[in-house]
Amino acid sequence: MAGASAGSLAVATYNCGLEPEKATQALHEFASNCRSNGTRYRLGGLLRDFLHAYLPDDAHERCRGNTHVALTRLFPVVRSEMVSEFESKDDFINALLTSCHIPFYFNGSWMTEFRGKFYMDGGVAAFIPRPPTEYAVKVCCFPVNEVLATVQDRVAQYERVASLLDVSISPDAYEPWPFNYAKMVTWALVPADDDMLRYMINKGRRDARAWAQRMLLVPQDAAANLTGGEGAGDIGGGAERAAERVRQAQAQREAVAEGLGSNGDGTGLRGRTGDPSVAKVTSAGMQSCESGSGSER
């Protein structure tokens, strides 16, 4: 498995054998701290503390050879590098922090030193890195289908570029997703409220299950005619409230589909002034969002 930036954290968490409940607990604690105290210039130190607290002492041994962490090396030329051998837990955590180093935002510096060389966020040079295997399933946390529908035909003749766009699992791969890239980037920097985090965890489970069902990898689902991620299971405790907000956002997106530009609320479209249906949906959506955290407003 390979990952860049936050993707490297997901791969590390899995290969370290963290129980889903413990990983979810860490996510909510980390997100709460970020929402309360901010993330700019302090994200690096906070992430280091959480990785030391939650990863096992033998994390470097568990992840050696099976966790490929993508880094963007800066000198003498900008290029992607992957590391999968780690000397200690500290060395492993330093690799993860290097992969997550968003220039300036992470800790105030535009680059970071790792093993005597200078790097930045691994996603800069390898947005979705590929492990050294014959086959790979690419997963992206951003909605990519609309972009692919626009550009894929034009780049299909370029095999290398086309391979970069071959994403199997993303938020809009198997069901509508109303939030645009700008909104998702906002949530990447300042986490959404806990209800929305639970919803997105559930959605990730559904999307992965939907892919497995499409590839006929779940015989019992095929026998039961389950599709679209049915049977993945949900985490409760507020996810249903966020689900209603997602439905409202999708309704708003569809209601203003004939407009241009952005509403400024992350749905990616702007309705026509005076359209009562838009006003009605917008009002409902804003009322729902007010019950969430500041990152949702």
Automatic annotation (TrEMBL):
Keyword presence, Transcription regulation: no
Motif window: GXSXG: 3-7
Region described as Disordered: 253-297
Record-listed E.C. numbers: 3.1.1.-
InterPro entries documented for this protein: Acyl_Trfase/lysoPLipase, PLPL, PNPLA_dom
Name of this protein: Patatin
Domain notes: The nitrogen atoms of the two glycine residues in the GGXR motif define the oxyanion hole, and stabilize the oxyanion that forms during the nucleophilic attack by the catalytic serine during substrate cleavage.
Similarity field: Belongs to the patatin family.
Biased composition (Gly residues): 261-271
Motif, DGA/G: chain positions: 121-123
Active site (catalytic residues): S5 (nucleophile), D121 (proton acceptor)
Catalytic EC class: hydrolase
GO molecular function, one term: triacylglycerol lipase activity
Domain called PNPLA: residue spans: 1-134
PANTHER family (UniProt xref): CALCIUM-INDEPENDENT PHOSPHOLIPASE A2 IPLA2 -RELATED (PTHR12406), PATATIN-LIKE PHOSPHOLIPASE DOMAIN-CONTAINING PROTEIN 4 (PTHR12406:SF7)
Coiled coil: none
Domain of life: Eukaryota
Alphabetically ordered keywords of this record: Hydrolase, Lipid degradation, Lipid metabolism
Gene Ontology biological process terms from the UniProt entry: lipid homeostasis; triglyceride catabolic process
SUPFAM superfamilies in the cross-refs: FabD/lysophospholipase-like (SSF52151)
Cellular component GO terms, alphabetical: cytoplasm; lipid droplet; membrane
UniProt feature, compositional bias: Polar residues: 284-297
Biological function: Lipolytic acyl hydrolase (LAH).
